[in-house]
Amino acid sequence: MLYFTLRRDQRRMINLSGKHRSLLQVKFWFADLIALLLRPFSALMTLSALMTLSALMTLSLAQTSAPAYAAPNDLFGITPLDDESFAESFTLVARLSDDGYLLVQAMVMNGGFGDEKPACRILHVPSKTKGVNEVDRDGDWGFSKASGTLTVGSCTLRETARGAYWKARTDTLSVELSLNGSKGPRSISSMNASFDDKRFFNNELIIPWAKVTGQLKTQAGHQEIRGYGTVNHTRSTALPPQVAHRWLKVYAFPMKVNQGREATAQEGLLVEMRQTNDTPSRSIGWVWSKSQKQPRPVSPKQLSLSSRWAKTALKVGDTLKSSDGGSVYTVSALRSVYTYEPIKAYGLLGRVLKRWIGDPINVTSLVELSGPRGKLRGLVEQITFR
Questions:
Q1: pLDDT, tens digit (0-9, with 9 covering 90-100), for 360-381
Q2: Which domains does the chain have, with CATH numbers?
Q3: pTM for the whole thing?
Q4: What is the pLDDT of residue 300?
Q5: Which residues contact 53 (CB under 8 A, 6 or more apart)?
């Protein structure tokens, strides 16, 4: 099967001239912008992100379920569809022990020229310097069920006995990671959405509580990294915009803190809340405490989240209630480390697409939660459509 990448489409312009070359250049820019604007769980919002956001923030969520976990070697399997808006991705979001932030993503998508185009992305935000995000779109993709290995361009994901192995390379960044933790897709109805016979969004957590260790290479050199993160899998044909105002995600882990007690190894908290209109009561989401077997659906009131979250960002002093019997965590520290505004970043072309995709801003922050048995540290993503 022949696979096309955006770079290959770009190289086609070498043999063209005049009007045809200009038209292809405009089409390429348009497709490239869409590809960069739409992605899930990251400050980089590529095609999968805005599909994810619009689907998750729709007014009517369907009772769809995640695909069955048929065999161990199917963990990273991808099943393409012919739909032009199809996108499927695996994403790691990790808080590093040095207070850095790491996102790695492998995606296959149809949007733009050609079908089943691969994208391998790395975003690294060091603790004290500016973040770097890059994407590599060269190559093809393939999955070996025999070895449980998915190759997406310069990304390689492989299931292991203890979790997963992930290797990725972009222009100036590369990572080689071990992701150790309990694995197997977990999903509930409030994670998924369906709009008609063709438009859907499915989300599942592949490794919800991953201990991350490995190597990171930047322009400054090599370094050992460690931390905690979450690996998720999304599959979607839904397109923006859907009615959506706010999206809150919290990833909190039992990481060491400078002062006070470290939380027990069994503690951890994952939260997602989506506001579907200006009224907080119309919000929907889920919460998962590490001590529980699976996430459960939750409303802002059940989460013990202050009603003002609907109009303002999460703040120090706000509370979150876990799913393990009602433990309440207080936001004791919150520091923004990365902000992404795709419409602003792409200037004129971004303004052209604003009517179609909306005007989102994604703010990622380092967070510390204080609970009855110690402190959790992690990340918060807050997406607002303006």
A1: 888 999 999 998 878 899 999 9
A2: 6-385 (2.40.370.10)
A3: 0.78
A4: 74
A5: 40, 45, 240, 244, 247, 360, 383, 385
